[in-house]
Each structure stands twice: as C-alpha cells, then as structure tokens.
Amino acid sequence: MNKTLHYRACHLCEAICGLTIETTDEPAAGLRISSIKGDPQDSFSRGHICPKAVALQDIQNDPDRLRVPHKRVGDDWQAISWEEAFEFAAQKLWAIQQAHGQNAVAVYQGNPSVHNYGLMTHSNYFLGLLKTRNRFSATSVDQLPQHLTSYLMYGHGLLLPIPDIDHTDFMLILGGNPLASNGSIMTVPDVEKRLKAIQGRSGKVVVVDPRRSETAAIADQHVFIRPGGDAALLSALLNTLFSEGLERPGSLPVDGLDQVREAIAPFTAEAMAPLCGIDARVIRQLARDFAAADKAVCYGRMGVSTQRFGTLCHWLIQLINLVSGNLDRVGGALCTQPAVDLVATTAGGHFNAWQSRVSGLPEYGGELPVAALAQEMLVAGEGQVHALVTVAGNPVLSTPNGQQVERALSSLEFMLSIDLYINETTRYADLILPSTSALENDHYDTTFNLLAVRNVSRFNRAILPKPQGALHDWEIFVGLAKAFAALSDKPLKPTMAPAQMIDIGLRQGPYGEGSAFNLSVETLAQHPHGVDLGPLRPNLATRLKTASQRIQAAPSQILDDLQRLAEQLPADRDQLLLIGRRHVRSNNSWMHNYHRLVKGKPRHQLLMHPDDLAARQLQDGQRVKVSSRVGSIEVEVQACTDMMPGVISLPHGFGHARAGVRMDIASSQAGASVNDLTDECQLDAVSGNAALNGVAVQVVAA
C-alpha cells in the first residue's frame, strides 16, 4: 500500500483554500483519498480549511453521483454512450430551433460554472452555437447589481474593488456574513482571523444586518436594519459625508460628483431613519466614525444585492468609499491584478441591448434576469421557450417562485442537463451528461483570483485519474458542439484544452514572460503551495475601461432610481419580512447530500423572534405554515433572539423531498425551499436581479 501527498486548492467556494490530500494506492481498490487537510504552507489560506473541502472525499465516492450519460425512458433512466447522447441532444435542439426559432432554446448556468475552469473556458464553445438570446444564470439571483454598477461606473463588469481587509482600520459590512460564506465577491480564506486582526490593531468591525449573524457576533458593533432598508441607510451615510464636510479628496479622475451631491441632498439621516429602522443619531455617528478612520472600507454582499434596491445599494457603497477617500487606497477598496487578467482581455460588457419577451427585463452581458425564465417557458407566443439546457444549476431551489419553475420545466419539449445528479431540477431532463469529479480534473481559478484580497496564483493538477469512459466537462461541450455543428452546418472554431488556454493567459499576463515571476503552467507546477504575487495596490485609474478613462459617478440609469427610493413608505411594523441566511455547511443545495456536511444540529428551521411568536400564539419548535403571494410551505420554527423583531429567516437550498430526486442523504433532510416563497415579480428595478430578501409573508400554525 503506497501513500502519497498532493497539494491543490479547493474550488467549492470562493475561499480557494490550499489542501493537503493524501491518497492510498490499494491493490484491490486502486487510488483512493485517505485524508484531506488544510495546507499550512499554502501562500494564501495559511492552513485554513472549511467543511466543504473535507466533503470532496464524499463527492468522489458518492453512489448517487452519475458517471455516464443517462437518458429518460418513461419514468426511469437508462445509461447510454457518449456518442448516442451527443447525437440525441443535437437532434432535439436543432429540431426545436428549426420549428420555433433560435430563441426557443434557453440556457441556464448555475453557480458551479465559475468554480470549474473547464466550464469557464468551453461552455460557450457549444452554447454559443445556439445563438439564443434566452441565456440565464445564477448571477441574477446573486451579484448582478455589483457587476452592473462596476460596468456603469468603471467600464467593466469585472472591475470590482475588493476590501483590503488585511490593512483596513474600519470595516463596515452590510448584508454579508463572511464567516459563513468564506467571503463572497471577496476571496478571503481564514476570514475570522483576518477580521479579528482588524480589532487587534485597534480597528473596528461593524455589521449591519437584520440578524445577529455569525459575523455580527464577533463584530465590535452590530446594527439591526429592516430588510430592504440598506439603500436608505447608505444614502443617509453619503448625505452625512457631504453635509458635514467629511469628504476626503482623492486623486482619482471622476465625473459627476456634483450631480451626486445635489441628488443625495434630500436623503438626510432624519428622512431615511423611518425607512431603515435605524435612529438618525446612529446613522450620523456611523458616518463620522467611518470618515474619522485612517483607512476604512464599506462592503456589501448578498443581502444588499438581492433586494429591490440592489443596484442603488452597490452604487452608494462605491460612492461612500470614493467620497471618503478610501477607493483605490491601501486599507480601503482596491482592485486586484490577477495573473490571468479577464479585465484586460475581455470586453467590458453591455446592458439593455435587448429585453425578455414577456416582462421586458433588461439583459446584461448577454444574459437575461432568471426571474423571467419560467414566464418565457409558460407564456405562449412567438419566441416561447420550448427547450432548456441547464449547466450545473438547480433553478427549482435557487430561483424565485420555484413551484412556477417546476410547472414550466414539466411543459418543455426537451431538456438537457450537464450535471452530476438527478436533483430537483434535472429530474425533469430528458438527458443528463455528467462530467468527472473535482478531484479528477485540473483547475485554475480565473474568477476568484480576480476577487482575492491578495494577488496569488496556483495551478491545480488532478489528484485522481480520469475514469475509463468518463469525460471532463470541457470535453462534453466539445462533443456537443461537434454534433450540433454537423447537423446545423455551422462553422466550428478550433479549440484547445483549458490548461493550454490558461498557459497562454499566464504567459501574456502581468506576471508572465519578461516579469520577475515568469508565470506559466510549467512554472506554477514547481510551486505546489501556490505563488504569492503581493498585496493589492492602487491601480484603478490605470485599469478604467470607460470611454473617457474617468470614473462615472452619476450613471443616469442608477441616478434615476433615487426617485423610487424617495417615494418609499415606511414599512408596516406588523408585517413580517422574510430573509435568507447561509451556513458554512449548507450554503448551497448540493451540500446536503454529504454526511460530513449535514451531520450535527439541524439548520433548516425558520428563525423567529420570541415576541413575534408570542404575538401569533406560536411555540418554539412548532410546525408552522409560511405564506407569500406565490405559495406556502410548512417548516419547524425556532425562537431566536438574534432576529430583529418583525423579521424571520429561512436558509437557502432545502426542500429536497420531491418525487424523482435521486440523492438519498439530501432527500432525508428536513426543511423547505425558501424559493417556494420568493416572488418572481419582486425585483431590483435597474438590473432585474431577484429580490430574495424582504419578502412579505404570513406565519400561522400548520
């Protein structure tokens, strides 16, 4: 029996933690994983590891994971060959487009699409051949407002300033819980130690959240806020910076600040306090504390993205950092300089070049908001969607009004899924194509290095060999593309393996040929613990992609939305508002089929303040019925003083007990899907991003 140590990074979440993986070569069983631990020599994560990384072993050995193509035959599934699968998919998709037009085929790409470089490099090799405008992804139930804000202000949707957490003195966090998410649009392993280091150097961490989250529990200050009130708070903070002369002039080239100053003048702390549920004195003091800090940064994430003013929130966050002198400043918000630089090598994006057929929602970067997907399938007429391709996604559990999504999926003529499982969504597919597992393929993080709190680089080689008869995800897309191109007589461009693409990107990047690092796939192979490329540095002025090469502080699309905020009425104090929440063991639905992640205390309950329970004559632990405009669910309620009165919380990704799901551990988990309550009509008006937080609900005994 031979034991071998391997080093690579986990790519199941944004933290990209370095791992030490031990394999055992057994005569009977072959090469198997015997242990997964944090790599103390990793240049970035410093030995930190979270439960997801350990679960890589469970994913590898999961008997529920598909390993060959499966075709639906009645109510059952039949294993077929890759050749037959590619031909079947191409014939079906081509026939539907011939009968109903190119837009009759829709595409949905899930969150794992950015966690696997084969999906990043090659998915469009096939999907691009479809030439459909009905492209959707998990972006529009997550961070779309951040991309749109950066596109409008800085000229590129990936030019995202990141908190310089290791050098700041004051970190203001809104709608984020990095202790549970391991960052999120902020690649930051070992985040708890980094936050505590701010406090250790006499700095301050402030968390604004309707729930006293895990991150809020270790913060210096926690401020409760009414869900959806973040734009009111942020506008009042910016107003205070202007009105009290707390601006700190910087050297960045900026257009439109005078427009912003004039537009924000009515949004005083006193006017906004009723909308956010925070006393005006607290708002003003928060602005003063932020301005007084030598180095400060304002950071907003999921909670401020997935609400009715998501884009306005992220615009205000950028302006608070800018006006206070903390944008593009050490200890403030800085842009990365990644080894493979997507900002330098890709177009900045486009916005509202077309709209969804039924609801008229705007596209961004070639994708429509996923809240419109079910309508496009269900509403008859020219351009109706008759077929769907899903890629590593589970929209039944991940997008608003999941029950409507289920009805839409059942109405399709054909559905193709590239996925490892028969889950809540893929059970409706006619064909499922599974790729190799994470440990059986190479990986390079083009996305999360772009969002990292330090410039780093590493190339991860596969730990286990590709099983006989299996295909990597990029090979699946090449096979589909060849079959579709042969039928449609469309030209097919030559391609290369992802590793070759990354090698070219590394060599042509800022640390490539001619630099001190001379990065390539070959040189990275000599550094199994990764390469530290140095701390973030001010660079925004030189990386701007706007036509004027200046920051656009007052984009008309966002500035006009201030009027909608001004017309808001204070929330009804008797109305319960629903928010989501994350847990480090259950961020996403895929995490519920692994014993290492679901063991321990249950995490599916509805959290509710004891006063709200008493007002409705409900008891802790009771089963309750929660209802919204779109539907209702039943779930166990748990009394929780960490909740703001009037606010309840249900986690994302549960609700697996559906007929046809073949994920044994997940199906045995209690809990209901929060997206059976979220409303596809409740959106951020600017971007069309789903407003998953602040949903009005009623709670009664079940």
UniProtKB/TrEMBL annotation:
GO terms for cellular component: membrane; oxidoreductase complex. The lineage of its organism: Bacteria, Pseudomonadati, Pseudomonadota, Gammaproteobacteria, Pseudomonadales. This is Dehydrogenase. It comes from Pseudomonas alkylphenolica. It comes from the Bacteria. GO terms for biological process: cellular respiration. Residues 3-62 form the 4Fe-4S Mo/W bis-MGD-type domain. One of its GO terms (molecular function) is molybdopterin cofactor binding. Coiled coil: none annotated. CDD domains: MopB_1 (cd02762), MopB_CT_1 (cd02782). InterPro entries: Asp_de-COase-like_dom_sf, MoPterin_dinucl-bd_dom, Mopterin_OxRdtase, Mopterin_OxRdtase_4Fe-4S_dom, Prok_molybdopt-oxidoreductase. The keyword Heme does not apply. PANTHER family: NADPH-FE(3+) OXIDOREDUCTASE SUBUNIT ALPHA, RESPIRATORY NITRATE REDUCTASE. Keywords: 4Fe-4S, Iron, Iron-sulfur, Metal-binding, Oxidoreductase.
